[in-house]
Design a protein that fits this description.
about 160 residues, mainly alpha, Rna Polymerase Sigma Factor, Chain: A, Arc Repressor Mutant, subunit A, 2 domains, two-stranded antiparallel ribbon, 2 strands, about 5% strand, elongated, sigma factor, RNA_pol_sigma_r3/r4-like, RNA polymerase sigma factor, DNA binding
Length: about 160
């Protein structure tokens, strides 16, 4: 008797998220990248219905995750590297000679530079340089959704660091 074939159920796929995230962390060694790749995997897998044999949901998700990770690493190799730090003398970053504002700006820039690289690049592009989400996504060669999630997490980390 042949195995039962069914569509990948979104609810069943969601049950595997923690395990898939653990696989992504093992593949990448980065919690942030693992989260992004897991999110992209679910976006790709759930965008089109797929027929699977019973019990094949998780192995299928792991294969899809490996493909997403391989695509990510290939695009990373082609991506130009952003070099340098924030130019504190840039006219848009002026504090108009106010020493208190200069001290606060210096503290903010220090904490921005201490963010993990993925968050730092997005925070610098959007909040410091004033690029839109779309412009940032194109510049960094990442999806707009990834820009928004990294910006949110980067801002949260920055707020915690500034509050401490």
């Amino acid at each position: 008797m042949p195995p039962h074939i069914s569509l990948l159920d979104p609810n069943a796929a969601a049950e595997h998220r923690c395990r898939l995230l653990a696989v992504a962390r093992a593949l990448t060694g980065s919690p942030q990248l693992a989260e992004d790749l897991t999110q992209e995997t679910y976006a790709r897998v759930l965008a089109k219905p797929r027929r699977l044999t019973d019990g094949a949901d998780f192995p299928y998700l792991v294969r899809a995750l490996r493909n997403v990770a391989n695509d990510h690493w290939r695009s990373e190799q082609r991506r130009p590297q952003v070099v340098g730090e924030v130019d504190e003398d840039h006219p848009n970053l002026s504090t108009d000679g106010n020493p208190e504002d200069a001290l606060i700006a210096s503290e903010v820039y220090t904490h921005v530079n201490n963010l993990p690289e993925d968050f730092r690049k997005v925070v610098q592009a959007v909040d410091v340089l004033g690029l839109s989400y779309g412009q940032t996504a194109r510049q960094l060669h990442i999806p707009t959704g990834t820009v928004m999630s990294r910006l949110s997490r980067g801002r949260s980390r920055l707020a915690c660091a500034l509050a401490a």
